[in-house]
Write a structure and sequence with these properties.
The complex is a heterodimer.
Chain A: E1 2-15, E2 20-33, E3 37-41, H1 48-56, E4 63-70, E5 74-77, H2 83-92, E6 94-98, H3 109-118, H4 124-137, H5 154-166, E7 172-176, H6 184-199, E8 203-207, H7 211-214, E9 220-225, E10 228-230
Chain B: E1 10-19, E2 30-31, E3 34-35, E4 41-51, E5 56-60, H1 67-74, E6 82-87, H2 102-112, E7 113-116, H3 120-123, H4 130-140, H5 146-159, H6 176-187, E8 194-198, H7 206-223, E9 226-230, H8 234-240, E10 243-248, E11 251-257, H9 258-263, H10 268-275
Parallel strand pairs in B: 5-9, 5-10, 7-8, 8-9
Antiparallel strand pairs in B: 1-4, 1-6, 2-3, 10-11
Helix pairs in contact in B: 4-5, 4-6, 5-6
Classes of the chains: A alpha/beta, B alpha/beta.
């Protein structure tokens, strides 16, 4: 079964001040089966992140359809769905992980992960237990749980991001260069975690810089060049 | 919750606030928000928006864009020229609050909405104690039980992290951040379903600002309240708002999911705003 069907997706940015139109990606089409992991590779600036951000609706697609087979509403075109519907899906079904961390000030790592469940309506004690389980699953040292993450290293931030997203058990995960700026040891750890997620039947799309890392994790790999898929 | 069938807590349609005599062609040719012909100022111009249960709607825009006009209209501090506003908790959202009688308006103001002004002088009685400020609001809602009032004041003040040992002190002796927090607790006194926050973090130093932001987030989680959050600080909006509308010259020029508005702004003014961010 297909969880995501993308047809003719295109995105261009209109910059008023510079009076310029910048084309990022065009005519992207692919399908993601349930439980599948698709990797996207390509040079920087090729439009990889744009695709993920269009699916997450951080960017408004300029053309095409992104049909996601949601649990709550059935098939939904993410390119055209209402804001409230997108917010619901982000809260309950679609996760987005990047190397960047965005945490409320004065929020500890554990509170950050718990927050994801509390906004879904989970009660405090259950949220705490699930957050602790996730943090140890992603091997974030216990002494960091009650620390403000603004001082975390790249690898720790990423693991916190993964825990924050995975604690909700999303059906669809979007991974935007999760291994960028990580050392090899941490990369292997992330790879292992992605494998475990896959074994839980999580559908995933990931952007990666290094092809060798993708080996054995992705079911299919797309190469994007100048905004379109090649090969 | 089902986001498709949910009833909004607040629905504003076509709010217009004009200052001036008006003319037959008023509004057809505006210089910013001022009529070129007769000089009438359109402080709010056909503003429509909805706020849903448990969400924070951010409103951004430069000074004079109509943000506070919208808030003041909603809190009956000024009278709109045109438009309607429906509150879910007032007559089940069937009657326009701007058409309510003076007594009903007072009740809506006291019981169904809470307002926190940028300037604490507008929201607090500086000479009265912090507890009396909260009690004032509870009395206005009809209660006369002094014991219950004291208890409620204690609860609310500790929820905003003000020492209850200081509840008998007047807010004029408090710091700016504390005054803002007393205002927030006063606004929450009667469990309103909608909280109006007008530039509540402006002018506070960064650590106090973080405290107030943290408080707003906790209040939203604890009371499930809907919040209309006006700020010109995009970082505050990014942290707190689920959805955001952008205002310019009295009009809404763009609205969307907060991250989308900030990362992929569609309007020239929003682009300018985002590119000016530090």
């Amino acid at each position: 079964m297909d969880i995501l069907q993308i047809e003719g997706l295109g995105k261009q940015f209109l910059l008023y001040e510079q009076n310029k139109q910048i084309r990022s990606c065009q005519d992207i089409s692919f399908t993601l089966h349930e439980g599948e992991f698709i990797g996207i590779v390509g040079l920087s600036g090729a439009g990889k992140s744009t695709i993920l951000k269009c699916i997450h609706r951080t960017y408004l697609p300029s053309a095409g359809k992104i049909v996601y087979d949601s649990k709550a509403f059935g098939p939904v075109d993410l390119a055209a769905a209402g804001e409230r519907q997108i917010l619901f899906l982000r809260k309950h079904e679609i996760g987005y992980v990047s190397q960047f961390l965005s945490v409320m000030p004065r929020t500890t790592a554990k509170e950050h992960v718990m927050g994801a469940l509390l906004e879904m309506g989970e009660d405090g004690e259950k949220a705490r237990a699930a957050a602790e389980e996730m943090l140890s699953y992603f091997r974030l040292p216990e002494e960091l749980w009650d620390v403000y993450p603004s001082t975390f290293s790249g690898g720790e931030r990423l693991r916190l991001n993964l825990a924050h997203t995975m604690v909700k058990h999303p059906r669809l995960m979007l991974l935007d260069e999760p291994t960028a700026s990580l050392d090899n040891k941490t990369k292997v750890l992330v790879k292992d975690m992605l494998k475990r997620l896959k074994s839980r039947n999580t559908s995933m799309i990931g952007i990666f810089h290094d092809l060798e890392f993708m080996d054995g994790v992705c079911d299919r790999v797309f190469n994007i060049s100048e905004g379109g898929f090649v090969g | 919750m089902n986001p498709i069938t949910e009833q909004p807590v607040l629905k504003v349609s076509h709010l217009t606030v004009r200052y001036g005599s008006g003319c037959p062609c008023c509004g057809t040719s505006l210089e910013k928000n001022r009529c070129r012909k007769c000089g009438t100022v359109w402080a709010a111009n056909d503003v429509s928006l909805e706020v849903y249960p448990g969400e924070i709607l951010g409103i951004v825009g430069e000074s004079g864009s109509g943000k506070s006009t919208l808030m003041k209209s909603l809190y009956f501090d000024l009278e709109p020229t045109e438009g309607t506003a429906y509150l879910r908790d007032y007559q089940d959202g069937a009657k326009d609050i701007w058409q309510a009688s003076a007594a009903e308006k007072r009740r809506i103001r006291n019981c169904l909405m809470g307002m926190v002004y940028q300037n604490p002088l507008l929201g607090l009685r500086m000479e009265y104690s912090a507890a009396a400020n909260i009690a004032e609001k509870i009395i206005a809602a009809g209660s006369r039980d002094a014991g219950a009032m004291t208890e409620r004041a204690q609860d609310l003040l500790s929820a905003v992290e003000i020492l209850t040992s200081r509840m008998a002190e007047a807010p004029k002796n408090f710091s700016g951040g504390m005054q803002q927090r007393v205002q927030i607790s006063k606004a929450l006194a009667n469990n309103p379903s909608l909280l109006l926050l007008d530039e509540v973090t402006t002018g506070l130093d960064i650590s106090v600002q973080a405290k107030v932001l943290d408080l707003i987030r906790k209040i939203k989680a604890r009371y499930g309240i809907s919040i209309l959050l006006v700020s010109h600080d995009l970082a505050v909006i990014r942290m707190l708002a689920d959805r955001t509308v952008v205002m310019l010259d009295g009009k809404i020029v763009e609205s969307g999911l907060t991250d989308q508005v900030l990362e992929d702004p569609q309007h020239a003014y929003t682009q300018q705003l985002v590119h000016s961010m530090l």
